[in-house]
Amino acid sequence: MTDTVKEELNKLEQAHLDFISTVSHELRTPLTSIRGFADTLLSSYDRLTPEQREKFLLIIKEQSNRLINLVENLLTVSKMQSEKDLLIYKEIDVTHYIDSTVQMLKNQYKTHKYICNYEKNLPKILIDTDKFQQIMLNLIDNASKYSNEGSTVTVTVKQNYNENTLQIFVKDEGIGISKEDISKIFNKFSRVDSPLTRKIQGNGLGLYITKTLVEKMNGAISVESSTKGSEFKVEFKIASPEDNAKKIQK
Ligand code: ADP
Question: Which long-range contacts (CB under 8 A, 24 or more apart) does 58-66 make?
């Protein structure tokens, strides 16, 4: 084995160990909290007021949801890295899938306003619908959760005639992301650490998954942000109907 190969293997092993250590840490925090509150409920049930019991049960539920999200994201990451994760291309009108994602999130963020601006006569694009929906869910969910109640999230879809692409913009009026942090947010487990973000639940895998899925389907993702909010842009090539037919047949 050459020195370069050895070095590469060491790097891979280190990355693997770092990953295990981060995942264990992410799992331990909610599990410790669940066990602590369950212990308190079991040992002091009669001494607690009904309000305290409800509060502790809600924390247990919230932390369990955090664990479920983490495990689901980890499964997605592992699936994305497998060669068996094939893309199932379909020619679709993306606005239909954006509408259903927005509808779903409206139930969760009841005070937010959602505006969908779609250019007329948009072409269909060839895409894996499940993966496209996951991309939209991650971006619109982030736009909602990193902004105040009552603020507006705007999704715009238009055609870029020069580049022959379809552009999807997800814009919020939220807390924004600094220039320095923008270079990190697409990395695995990367979260901006600030008093504002610490209060918001997340595991830093959403944008990593989003970027990987966009690029798997030959798209591009970018972001612009200021203290007034952020705007994520996702762009996919518009292929000719003949090219699409070939790709579906493959
Ligand atoms: P998380 O689960 O933490 O939301 P993501 O990978 O989706 O993970 O995002 C990574 C980090 O990028 C977030 O923790 C947050 O700090 C920042 N971020 C993502 N989207 C936005 C947004 N729309 N506005 C402000 N910050 C954002």
Answer: 59/33, 60/33, 60/34, 62/201, 63/30, 63/31, 63/33, 63/34, 64/30, 64/34, 66/30, 66/201, 66/203
Q: Which atom of ligand 1 is nearest to the CA of 207?
A: 6
CA of 2 to the centre of ligand 1 (A): 41
> For residue 138, how many other CB atoms are within 10 A of its CB?
22
Interval 214-248: pLDDT, tens: 999 999 999 999 999 999 999 999 987 677 677 66
Q: Which of 32, 222, 243 is nearest to 139 (CA)?
A: 222
Q: What is the pLDDT of residues 147-205, one digit of tens each?
A: 999 999 999 999 999 999 999 999 999 999 999 999 999 999 999 988 889 889 899 99
Find out whether 94 and 166 touch, Cβ atoms under 8 Å: yes
List all residues 6 or more positions away from 35 whose beta carbon is below 8 Å from its beta carbon: none
Considering only CA atoms, which residue is closest to atom 25 of ligand 1? Answer: 176
- Ligand 1 pocket, Cβ-based, cut-off 6 angstroms: 138, 142-143, 146, 172, 174-175, 177, 185, 190-192, 197, 202-208, 230
Tell me how far apart the alpha carbons of residues 219 and 237 are, in angstroms, rounded to a whole number.
7
How many CA atoms within 13 Å lie on the side-chain side of 90?
Answer: 11
Cα 227 to averaged position of ligand 1 atoms, centre (Å)? 14
